[in-house]
Prior knowledge:
Blueprint: H1 2-32, H2 38-58, H3 71-94, H4 97-104, H5 107-119, H6 125-142, H7 151-173, H8 179-201, H9 207-233, H10 236-239, H11 246-258, H12 264-284, H13 294-297
Helix pairs in contact: 1-3, 1-9, 1-11, 2-8, 2-9, 3-7, 3-8, 4-7, 4-11, 4-12, 5-6, 5-7, 6-12
Amino acid sequence: MSSSSSSPILGLGTAFLGFAFYATHDALTKHLGGSYTVFQIIFFAMLFAFVPMAILMLADKQVGNFRPTHPWLVSLRSALTIVALSGGFYAFTVLPLAEVYSLLFAAPLLITVFSIPILGEVVRVQRWAAVIVGLVGVLIVLRPGTTELTFGHAAALMSACASALASVLVRKIGPDERSAVLILYPMLLSMIIMGALLPGIYVPVELTHLAMMAAIGFLSVAAQYSVISGYRSAPAAVIAPMQYSQILWATLFGYFFFDEIPDIYVGLGSGVIIASGLFLVWRESRASVSVRNPVSRTPTARFALAPSLRIKRSDK
Length: 316
């Protein structure tokens, strides 16, 4: 009894830690963005992340091979993950942390929209209302017509769209694909593409900055596994809202390290977006809702990398 009663608490704790790792990862990205392009940062971060991730995958005795069952869809999801990663990284380097998170948090709302044509989801009035309210929150953050919209804002929204699409694809092909395949291919493709771009953009890396890039890679792995542990210890509807804790870390890191203070519009818009996302998580956790739960079971906190690790299936 004691173990089962402590599982939700353990799950919440590990998930909270994982999202704290992600926020630290993003703060380091923002710091390095002043000296290097996002493509160089992603290349080295993925390179360092690949080492522990490969060791963990090779240690998994259930993994028989790395051949995808749906190669084209796996490739499409990998490409979308790279777009999401690049857009998110760029946005973090040019916009306040809290503002970027506010826009990225639109991804769960977009999953609801994309799930209609891709998964055949039936979206009823309440879910559509939540999506519309959430998108109003995005407009509050952007304040079109009263503030200058930059490529950073476009990159954050592009990241949210690509992340949502990639996450819906995970729900579509997940039952047929090994988790290792869905992890490995985006990482390899990222390193190949960023490595091809590297000769034209490379800037010599200081040793301390190289250590930070390594930290980004290792934090990414640690964060993914922390969040996964959370989902294994507690219901998805309990863990999914924890992704919004990143806005707290973003506010703290932004204030203490980057002299960023979110204005009232970012705060208000974030509140509206988060409230909409929480409503969707609550609604889709109810027993009467369709067994396909793309929002509550596939949160898109991190550019569609972590959800691939949370697929409930046995690898054959």
